[in-house]
Design a protein that fits this description.
single chain; 182 residues; mainly alpha
Amino acid sequence: MDAAQQEATARARELQRSWYGEPLGALFRRLIDDLGLNQARLAAVLGLSAPMLSQLMSGQRAKIGNPAVVQRVQALQELSGQVADGSVSAGEATDRMEEIKKSQGGSVLTGTGQTTSTGSAPTVRRVVREIQSLLRSVAAAGDIIDAADSLAPTHPELAEFLRVYGAGRTADAVAHYEGHQS
């Protein structure tokens, strides 16, 4: 690799860090390790070709162009954390990866440039995922549960919020969110 290629790779990894929180090579290697995958299986779950995954990991490409793939990456990150903290078993993780693989993301772009979705669920799911992502970027699930336990005697609603969004499953958080919209 010549100096220009090294510089382009370093620039791509820095862009990845700003867009995704870390270089995609590190992120994807962690998902592979945590979820017991190989690169080909990870590519299949994400909906990427193996060469594209390799280019993203090596910094030859900086950006994931498909928003649905980005959402699958986020879903796998969430699943990885749940496997790591023991709230999801290996068998459940395999089933969830199949669901993630089949997911199309929250919305579909039509030829007219408008966004269509099925009801409000994708929008609610996206909001919930953002809340979960923010909480989980601040603290690990175990720490969030500890904070919730501390708050429970005096602020039970806040404790519930932390448990549901900070350490719970996305489906439960969506139900909680929808139950509090009135």
